[in-house]
Amino acid sequence: MSDNYTPQPEHKFTFGLWTVGNTGRDPFGGPVREPKSPAELVRLLGEVGAYGVNFHDNDLIPIDATPTERDQILKEFRKALSDTGLVVPMATTNLFGDPVFKDGAFTANDPKVRAYALQKTMNAIDLGVELGAKIYVFWGGREGTETDASKNPVDAIKRNREAMNFLCEYALDKKYDLKFALEAKPNEPRADIYNPTTGHMLAFIATLDHPEMVGVNPEVAHEHMAGINFMHGVAQAWEAGKLFHIDLNDQYPGRYDQDLRFGSRDLKAAFFLVKFLEDVGYAGSRHFDAHAYRTEDYEGVKDFARGCMRTYLILKEKAAQFSADEEIQALLAEINADDGSMATYFGKYSAEKAIALKAQSFDRAAIANRGLKYERLDQLTIDLLLGAR
Ligand code: DIG
Ligand code: MN
Ligand code: MN
Question: Mean pLDDT throughout 270-287?
Fold first, then answer.
């Protein structure tokens, strides 16, 4: 069935191997789905209409694979990419699964772990670039603590910075056409994770030797876990020229990281996010870092993947409808009316402006009495989202 909500390559919908390949394991139960090979997962994504596939190094090549096994896996993966037309826009390193990273990777107290993490990441960057990745994500899932008796946070910051500077230099030395995207999360699997929000990451990036190479990969669920308006964080990253990638999913507030199907929990937040990305012309991947319910078989996994993309496209159409809605736009024009009388006071400071502004009189009561009609505006938005206009 083809309709306005059929995914096309230009939509740039991507999924990680670990998303549709999630076998349903959770802290209270084992897998419910048989594992599929990377090549099988690429074909599944091709079937549902995805544009691209992303991976952690060990999603593709198991950490203890022999060279022969590695070559065979890569051969089959490349064949599946060629057969389906899928591309690899992003790659990343698994610096959280193996027990060696139980105390973190770049910030671990053991220097052998820190050195091994750099080695593993260099090799994973090589693999990602070999397969076409232009964005490299860093999610420091284990970079944190259970007890702050164990680590000085300033040491952790310095170790993180040293690792990122080293790896930026590595990519420059290898002349890779690659940008790094840092992904924040406040907790889980560590009790507290360093750089817990996208805002912390933006501040950290500013302290690096090559900040121009480094941006952020905000994830809906992770900012929601921190009680933050996700679209505001994305807007701040965009405005700073740092929105290099994005992880789309959904999340109930105050829960563990649920990685729910996009738009399946907070439709209004998802709408304002899609509206923002489409209004500003975000040109990056729409990456769904999410997985199907544990109740599902692989047909259900395909329903999950189709649902992520379909909801995005429905909300994209709603955003266009919002922009074209005469009553909404008239209300916004009224709300943002500007008679120009204050224009002289804005922009760059001058002593003359300060003197004139200090002499300006304001009728505070009259200004305060003005009703702003946001209730009407928000109800029009709800009507639009519910299909009532
Ligand atoms: C979790 O949200 C993280 C890992 O899945 C991965 O490192 C990153 C890539 O999107 N997201
Ligand atoms: Mn997540
Ligand atoms: Mn993510």
Answer: 98
